[in-house]
Structure formats: structure tokens, C-alpha cells
Amino acid sequence: xxxxxxxxxxxKILIVLFVSLLLFLGFSKALLQFGDxxxxxxxxxxxxVRGDEMLNQRNYxxxxxxxxxxxxxxxxxxxxxxxLSESLILRGEIKEARVQAARALSLADEGxxxxxxxxxxxxxxxxxxxxxxxxxxxxxxxxxxxETLALVRAAAYRRATDYSAATKMYRDYLVDRPESGEAWxxxxxxSEGVQDFADLREQWANAAQWVDGEYTADYGNIxxxxxxxAAYFMAQEKASELSAEDYASWGVALKGNGLWDQAQERFxxxxxxxxxxPVTLYWLGVNAEIQGDVDKAKALYTGALDIDPSHxxxxxxxxxxxx
Length: 323
Description:
Blueprint lengths: L6 H50 L3 H14 L4 H14 L2 H14 L5 H11 L4 H13 L2 H17 L3 H14 L4 H13 L6 H13 L9 H16 L6 H13 L3 H14 L4 H13 L3 H14 L4 H9 L3
């Protein structure tokens, strides 16, 4: 027979086994936590990549969904919140865009602050707050950052109806970058605001040339392209009557820049000019909803679905409003 181990040895073995069990459980927990963190990081990165692709394709609705997923997985990640606010701006959901842009600013580090302030100013366009925000960004920006920030600053002053200051900013910008259709567009709007018609036709011609001409530039920025397209349609209107589709496209372009009042006029012109499309009725509904007229918005969304029952954005709008 095997002799029983003395009690002190049994005690030591039990202690060793107990400690080993604790170490094993701790290691398992750490491994599970690492695995969960790794999976969340991979899912967040996947949402980021898909969201960027949707932005590049100008599919703003899908981009918003992807960046919402990214923000849920990484709520304190500046990239997640800033991209969500960017896609909301481009989608035209300005109220939420302001909230997310402000949150992105709170998460930004020193190197990201100018970018965050610029985006917040874009979300605040049309208010005096936008001017204060972009001026704050301008004060702390570097020379290289000001090349991009200059157009946002000029637009903020223009949208705040300080056309005199905006005109100067656009002219200064165009000295070194005469190919910018966006700047010509902003200058033309500002020149009209100060009743300076001396070279207004030339300004619109330049805007249209760089947008629709042989040497059209791809600025790599969706907002810029929307503005440029709006500038082209506005220039074309001076020479000929636009179709219903042209007015609708112009409205979408203006909407993409947050110019809801002007977009409303274009959608109404599209409706009056000819065939009514689901897109026209949808954006008229969005604008009515922003103005607080929910009943009118529902009627317009329903009208869009009457024409095209598969119009997804109108379906989602009706569902959101509880119908």
C-alpha cells in the first residue's frame, strides 16, 4: 500500500492547486476580454471602411448607418464621432450633426481640434455661432490647414449674410487657386449680396467652366462637388430654362451644402416645371419636417410612395414618424 502523504504536504498541494485554479480562471477571463476587445475592434474597423466607401459613393444614408455602428462600438473614438457628424452633414440631418460635431470636438486632441472646429462650423452654417466657431479654428490653425479652412470660413460669413467680408475672403482665396469652382460660386453669391454686378457674369461663367468644362477638377470632397454642381445649375439658369430633373438635382446639391431655404425653392420649381418625382417629394417632405410641419411632411412622403412604393428613404421617413 502507498503511504498517505503527511498533512503538511497535502496542505501545500491543495494550496498549489487552488492558486493554479485562480491563475487559470484569471487567464481565461483575460483571454475572453482580449477576444471580445479584438472582435469589437475588427467590427469597428470594418464599419469604418464600409462607411468611407459609402461616403466616396455619395451614399449618405448608408454612410450614416455604418458610422453609427462604428460610434456604438467605439463611442470615445474621435474618428467614429467625427465621421458620423460628417455623414450627417452631407445627409442633411443638421440638428443631429451639430450634436455629434460638438461631441467630436470634445474628443479631439490638439492635432484634431482645427478639423473638429471646421466640421462644427459647417454643421452650424447659417448661424452666428458658425462664424465664432470658424474664427476660433482660424486662430489656432497652421498655414497648411488654412488652405482648406479658408473656404469654410468664407462660407460661414456668407451664410451669416456678411457678404462684404465673404467677398474679400473668396477673392483672396482665388488669387492662388483660380480653378476652385466652389470659391467662384461663393464669390458670385456674395457679390450679389453686396450688389456688386461688375464681373458677376464672369464669376458664374468661371464656376460653370470648372465644374462642367473639359478640365473639370475632382476636389476629392463631396461637399465641394455638391456646391460646384449647384453653381453650375445656377449659372445655366441665367442662359436657359432648366428641366424638372435639373431643378431637383440642383435642390439636392444645395441641400448637401445645408442651404435648405434655397433647396426648398428648387424642389418647388422642380415640382412646378414638369414630372413630379419621388426624390422631389421626399426632399420637400424633409424640408417641411425641419420646419416643424409634420403633417405636410407625412403627406409628401406618402406622395413619394404613391409614385414609387419602393422608395426606401420615404419608407424610412414614414416609419420614423410613426406611420
